[in-house]
């Protein structure tokens, strides 16, 4: 199945999740400007999934939950030189590796056997809010669960960019 979704520019508010034919599949709710947590609702506006950084977690672990708040899996960044790599632990459903070349916006999701489970790409341009296309081929991972995983990757990258830009910023003084 193929889904399209995007965040709002200020990472707050609700946005539609669309099928490949443009029909409404659900809603992505970025709950607050001051929090990176999200909720995902199906077509009937019933909460089916959520995602947030674990409370007081400095390790960058993003927890994906079902509509009742039960943990479905945990996303964590993994260090890999010259590429972006994440690991999604879906408990008894398996461990998934999510990788992308360093400057690419295309990601592959492989199961623990190295088989293709899903893929997604960031489709927005520079200075635009995040927009994504997801193709899910997994029988183990739900579409909305993967939307929460993708938003977790996006929020992790945003956190890293903010931390890096703050830590490495210098004051520019022009030569006069």
Report on this structure.
Mean pLDDT is 86; it is low at 165-176. Helices cover 14% and strands 46% of the residues. It starts with a strand and ends in a 9-residue tail after the last helix. It is built from 1 helix and 12 strands; from the N terminus they run E-E-E-E-E-E-E-E-E-E-E-E-H. It has 176 residues and is mainly beta. The protein has one helix at residues 143-167; strands at 2-6, 13-19, 24-32, 35-42, 47-53, 62-66, 71-78, 83-89, 95-101, 106-110, 116-122, 131-136. The chain has a 12-stranded antiparallel β-barrel with strand order 1-2-3-4-5-6-7-8-9-10-11-12. The protein has a single domain, classed as Porin (Beta Barrel). The radius of gyration is 17 Å and the shape is globular. Strand 1 and strand 2 (13-19) form a beta hairpin.
CATH C-level class: Mainly Beta
Largest sheet: 12 strands, antiparallel, barrel
Q: Which regions are unreliable across 5 or more consecutive residues at pLDDT < 50?
A: 165-176
Radius of gyration: 17 Å
Number of strands: 12
Helix content: 10-25%
What is the spatial order of strands in the main beta sheet? 1-2-3-4-5-6-7-8-9-10-11-12
Number of helical stretches of at least 4 residues: 1
The named CATH superfamily: LURP1-related
Order of helices and strands: EEEEEEEEEEEEH
Total separate domains:
1
How far the N terminus sits from the C terminus, by CA atoms, comes to 58 Å
- What would the CATH topology be? Porin
What structural class do you assign from the helix and strand content?
mainly beta
β-strand percent reads over 45%
What spatial form do the alpha-carbon principal axes imply? globular
Average residue pLDDT: 86
CATH architectural type: Beta Barrel
